[in-house]
From TrEMBL, chains A, B:
<dbReference type="InterPro" id="IPR000843">
    <property type="entry name" value="HTH_LacI"/>
</dbReference>
<keyword id="KW-0804">Transcription</keyword>
<keyword id="KW-0805">Transcription regulation</keyword>
<dbReference type="Pfam" id="PF13377">
    <property type="entry name" value="Peripla_BP_3"/>
</dbReference>
<dbReference type="InterPro" id="IPR046335">
    <property type="entry name" value="LacI/GalR-like_sensor"/>
</dbReference>
<keyword id="KW-0238">DNA-binding</keyword>
<protein>
    <submittedName>
        <fullName>LacI family transcriptional regulator</fullName>
    </submittedName>
</protein>
<feature type="domain" description="HTH lacI-type">
    <location>
        <begin position="1"/>
        <end position="53"/>
    </location>
</feature>
<dbReference type="Pfam" id="PF00356">
    <property type="entry name" value="LacI"/>
</dbReference>
<dbReference type="InterPro" id="IPR028082">
    <property type="entry name" value="Peripla_BP_I"/>
</dbReference>
<dbReference type="InterPro" id="IPR010982">
    <property type="entry name" value="Lambda_DNA-bd_dom_sf"/>
</dbReference>
Amino acid sequence: MHDVAARAAVSVKTVSNVINGYPYIRETTRAKVEAAIAELGYHVNMSARNLRRGRTGLIGLAVPELSLPYFAELADSVIRAAEDRGMTVLIEQTGAVREREIEVVSGQRRQFTDGLIYSPLALGPDDIGELAVVDYPLVLLGERIFGGPADHVTMSNVEAARAATEHLLAQGRRRIAVVGAHAGEMVGSAALRLQGYQRALEDAGIAVDPALVAEAGLWHRATGAEAMARLLDDGVQLDAVFGLNDALALGALHELHRRRVDVPGDVAVIGFDDIEETAYSAPTLSTVHPGREEIARTAVDLLLARIEDPDDDRPFQQVIADFSIIARESTLGEGTPAGH
Amino acid sequence: MHDVAARAAVSVKTVSNVINGYPYIRETTRAKVEAAIAELGYHVNMSARNLRRGRTGLIGLAVPELSLPYFAELADSVIRAAEDRGMTVLIEQTGAVREREIEVVSGQRRQFTDGLIYSPLALGPDDIGELAVVDYPLVLLGERIFGGPADHVTMSNVEAARAATEHLLAQGRRRIAVVGAHAGEMVGSAALRLQGYQRALEDAGIAVDPALVAEAGLWHRATGAEAMARLLDDGVQLDAVFGLNDALALGALHELHRRRVDVPGDVAVIGFDDIEETAYSAPTLSTVHPGREEIARTAVDLLLARIEDPDDDRPFQQVIADFSIIARESTLGEGTPAGH
DNA sequence: CTGAAAGCGCTTACAG
DNA sequence: CTGAAAGCGCTTACAG
């Protein structure tokens, strides 16, 4: 910067003004400075600027893993939303491991960022104390922790799961299995979505049969396939499956296909998340569209508001994203291969 | 840091020594300092450390989009590999747009990082001049640009594509379509994989039929489905499809399923990338395993070597990752649903 | 519109 | 083993 100033025969202040778009600069001065910058190939040193400004322009995004399509697509949306607002995203993979999720809120890497968008999967209400150390802007995603020192963006888990179940009921299904339950858990997406499922059944006057509820700790394709296999091996009668997320539903679909069970002829399947893959599976998968873009945009906006005005002590907000049911072949049956 | 020093009654140098693990410190001194750090809730300011050290500990990773599963899985692998070496990854999405790919190598955001792992999709040999500005460690991924001021990690595109085609030939297929070609392009994965396809056919004494080669600019599921539809609409006779990546192959599979074409009974399908989804599609998709983990690890290692020794002027390296063919239902036919 | 100067919070020769 | 001091490259009151 000093070299640029020397070459342009101005002070460093003037160079700084040009770089930062300070408006009251004579055109000739600006041109001189810009020429010097170009000739010297100068670019600002971010570390120095950040040190001086006390901000980095980086926000953290902590998710379980990018190899899970839902989180990859969420990360994509968050990166775009942040970019629109001039921020850069630093992704942190926690692997849904409790210690790593705790480490993220106070680790070294946190120091790089002005704030954090945080999507824990292993923490529970007992861990809320871990968030007490947070003295920076934080936005929580998901349903693991409520009441932390953070704004919160969630899905309509109960309502959306109820709508998904009602969609299956509307197709005449009565023996609806659930894949992905977490026994004994009172918080988290699993518990809330199961609740929605139960309410829909109750509203329809159908008793909830515990035999229809299959566990799956991790919500991956593999665990969905295993849970589906268990249901079938146990001889549970069923005419529909509600995968508590798309990966589970796709795993269940895979297992049904492997056993030559016709979908949706014999068993209808619905998922949750509307990842891109669901529009291309065979059959295509009905699912819940959870408003991922809206979630990403809202989270970034809430975080930025706190970053830009750290002294603002308005109460923490909770925003619930809209959802919709996407009906595809796995519940409607159009496009089922001939021969089925 | 001064506060910590004051509280521990030592100099800031000593505090710095403790933080950075300098070995020759009296145990009592270390304990005093650590107590002070804990009491004050002190943590180092990254911007200041980076400014002083001239390094940030961040490396950039520029990919087209995270919503493409291959790149999501690649990012996952790169983040893990970098973490093992104490580095943090900053992901940049270019959308496979030429201007954005150019911007990435010299943009503002570049200033945050010590080096860049760069996977362009739109640049070509004519753009090699754009890399002339690079005066920092750079590792290239993919086949768009060779000879830049960078180490380079690639796949065995030609050999792997040839092996994929030979796998189809070994199943008795003779009319093998290709989905995803880029007409007129002489560089890039499309051209190289098409070359491998052609060689396998020539070796088998089969003439290459241009009618079997379908274009698809972007390698997404949607474009794969469209290309497949075009082949079928044109009445091209075929008994196999080689999708130049998995997304294309999954799109083709989707279109075949939609039209009640039996896979692999009537048409065998193979892809390229071995994304996780291929193990769960119906039918499961045969594919080329391109050594993604190895690519990620090698790229991070090469980059770090340059970062750690910027004066080292050993010649730029090119590393080619191993591949293997993964045979699944879409070419072997086990597990095909009854009724087909 | 522009200049001279302080200071953001570290690390690291240099001394002892 | 530890201290005093310079300096990394910016931005920003303060002056003019």
